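Take our chain:
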Amino acid sequence: MKRLSCLTVFLAVIILASNLYAETATLMGEITRSGNSPAGNLVVSIEGKFSITDAKGRYLIKDVPSGRHTMQIKENRETGKILKEVEIEIKPPRLMHNETIP
C-alpha cells in the first residue's frame, strides 16, 4: 500500500511539473487601420491576456499558450466594441502577427 501511495505522489508531481513548463510564446505585431495608418490605444487580447497598442499600433503579449486561439482587437478592455476577431496558431517561442482593421 505504501508503494502505491509513493507512485501516486510521484505521478502527480510529474503532471504538475509538465503543466508548469507548458510551451508558451510571445505574440507581437502591429495593428493598422485601412489606409495603413497605425491603430494606437486599442486592446489586443488572447487567452485572458492583453496588451494596449502604442502610438505606432504595436503590441506585445507574453506567455501565450501554444495552440489555436482567437485573438480579439477591441476599442477598450471593459466595454469596447470588438473591431476584429481572428484565429491564429501560436507556436513557441515567438509569433509575429499583424492585422488591419476597418
About this structure: The longest strand covers residues 24-33. Helices lie at 2-20. The radius of gyration is 19 Å. The CA atoms of residues 33 and 48 lie 24 Å apart.
